[in-house]
Amino acid sequence: MANESRPCPCDIGDRFDYGGRGQEVQVGHIKAYVCKPPAGTDKAVIVIHDIFGWQLPNTRYMADMLAANGYVAICPDFFVGQEAWKPSNDWATFDEWLKTRNAGKIDKEVDVVLKYLSEQCGAKKIGVIGFCWGGAAVQHLMLKNAHLKTGVSLYGVIRFFEDRSSLLHPTFFIFAEKDDHIPLEQVTLLEQKLKQNCKVDYKVKIYPGQTHGFVHRKREDINPQDKPYIEEGRKDMINWLNKYL
């Protein structure tokens, strides 16, 4: 389980060997993983990775799942070539590592990706999802990027943008009840601020008994008690995107 010396336990649960159905491409100055649906579509979703980076099999699995549900899915390297965090790294160095990877400074990369999706993939309606670090990045984008239609923030780190709640687009916030990294008091405070300041549709949902990173795990049958919530979280995410894209 997570503790103070391991501040971001996205790697908890079942790591899995997954190759991915998509391909790696160069998009402007960054690399990206792209997976397209069997039929043509003008809908796309940007997938923002967690601290373990754009090549994490779990995240590519989620991108492929979006493609299977009819979206062009793209997971860019928002660390722009900088090394992703490794579970074997010393957590005492995490804050220093994080300083050069700011979830609120990805706008240049997002603009490049939006241009690619529009010009190369024919996308007209574009949403965004993100996990942990990426979930915080989703909240940042929902506060300022006019070109995105909707977002899903999965266990996004609230403290990064806790004072900002005037969202531009419908946003769905997914949290885990037993997340050692995001206390429920923070979630309650976020809900209060959204209620006061948010003029668009939003939803905050806490999944019982779950821990950080629960939605983008695989081999759920190893933890049978979690499986229904993992499936529910994924279904809720897809339903939200379907509603607003």
CATH A-level architecture: 3-Layer(aba) Sandwich
Question: Taking Cα atoms only, what radius of gyration do you get, to the nearest Å?
Answer: 17 Å
Highest CATH level, the class: Alpha Beta
Strand order, sheet with most strands? 1-2-4-3-5-6-7-8
Assign the CATH topology.
Answer: Rossmann fold
State the share of residues found in helices, binned by percent.
25-40%
CATH superfamily: Alpha/Beta hydrolase fold, catalytic domain
The fraction of residues in strands falls at 15-25%
Q: Rough shape?
A: globular
Assembly classification: single chain
Low-pLDDT sequence parts: 1-9
- Could you tell me how far the N terminus lies from the C terminus, measured between alpha carbons in angstroms? 36 Å
Question: What structural class results from the helix and strand content?
Answer: alpha/beta
pLDDT averaged over residues:
90
Keywords: Cytoplasm
Protein name: Carboxymethylenebutenolidase homolog
Pfam family, one: DLH
Domain Dienelactone hydrolase: 30-245
